[in-house]
Amino acid sequence: MGVQPWASGTWTNEPVDARVTTDGLVVTAREGSDAWRRTSYGFVHDTEHALLAALPQRTAVEVSFRLDFTAQFDQAGVFLRVDDEHWIKAGVEFSDGTNSLGAVVTARFSDWSLAPVPDWAGRDVTVRASRSGDAVTIRARVADEPWRLVRVAPLDASAVVEAGPFCCAPTRGGLTVLFTDWRVVPADESLHPE
């Protein structure tokens, strides 16, 4: 538990560039990179840049990054993967002119949820995915503000899951994301604050 070294993960798809600096991991996404399965659009994209390591039961993964998006569907956050057809991505996405906090939960077909967070631009965002029993609870925040509940999604309790930071640039080249932290910590004790 604790800080996850950048070198401990394996990429689902290699980005244009990924280098460790004193500030964190700087990743440049490939143009057209994305993760989506069928729903509404009819296509399958499995070209996301996700740096993954094991996520056992009763643990949570936290990923922090600097939010600096400018193009349609620029995105970054945390990615959980069971296989090609079962995965979750959650974080911030630049959609229709604003930054929005959201998640895509995929079980053969993808869904999508977003909530605008325009005041998060230029700040450090942390996304947390907590695995416990048959669910994953996703929360996010900026700085030391309270956690916001993003999603509670089903996740097979017996599944072998990998998780870590991800980014995608579906509509442009040149998206560079600074990931400032990657941690594995104990799972949340409960769904609701006590």
UniProtKB/TrEMBL annotation:
Alphabetized SUPFAM superfamilies for the sequence: Concanavalin A-like lectins/glucanases
Gene3D superfamilies found in the cross-reference section: 2.60.120.200
InterPro entries assigned to the protein according to its UniProt record, in alphabetical order: ConA-like_dom_sf, DUF1349
Superkingdom of origin: Bacteria
Protein name per its UniProtKB record: DUF1349 domain-containing protein
Taxon lineage: Bacteria, Bacillati, Actinomycetota, Actinomycetes, Micrococcales
